[in-house]
Description:
three-stranded antiparallel sheet; 23% strand; globular
Amino acid sequence: MANGRALNHELSKLFSDMWDMDVNRLVPGKDYTIDLQGKADVTQQGDSAVQDSAARHLFHNVNEERLKSIKTFATFISLLDNYETSTGMAEVVTPEEIVENNCFLDAILATEVMKLAHEYLLKKNLAKPNLADFKYQLYDIWFQLYARKEGDRPDSCGFEHVFVGETRRGKQILGLHNWVQFYLQEKRNQIDYKGYVTQKNKTRPHKDDQVLSIQFSWKGSVKPIGSTFIGVSPEFEFALYTVIFLLAEERVTRETVKIKEYELQMVVCRHGHHIGTAYPVLLSTSSEDS
């Protein structure tokens, strides 16, 4: 797979098809509303005192009834409190958590989005045809524990890093690229949204944009810039990152894709046979170019 800015047309089509099939995606302005407020100041990782350009929450409201009524969101939310977010602290996986992981995978594998991902990977000879085998493969990629730093006890997994978030020595936020976790942490006043981030001279994002770059603090640390899809289903993100991970041979892969009006660089890092991190970087939206 090529790294770089050249658009990957094959993946752009696949991911756009997944976007169209994502019936569980929430609708901006209807299922949720966001409040962008001000543009965040430039800051560095590890800074504790930063200018707050947003006095209010990013999420003005989210229809939680709708979230809880969708099986993939409901099973996803049940996983978010299963992790010790400090790196270096060993994770303990209980039998109940293993059941919850499997319930979540069963729920997403029943969706058209994940079926399309499976079909695509089958054509590339990167997945087994049997759904139980594919589920086992997903479990290994996303939920198998590993040590983020050599010598540490198993303290991390792909799911925890990407969707839950981790902290390092109380000074650095790792991962946390998921909008549902962001919303739930913000609701508990654990996250403080500091404002939106724009690339170079790009214009202010729109409240209905479903990919955002934002700055926030969490557990006493600041994330200078974090990119995230907004409103999409868990299966959509799982499908995108899993496909890129299985296609990739490098430790770090960057694929430029166009999904609807969003031009994105999808970044996926591997940690052996597992996902280290995965996130979108917003390059542009076609509404800006017109």
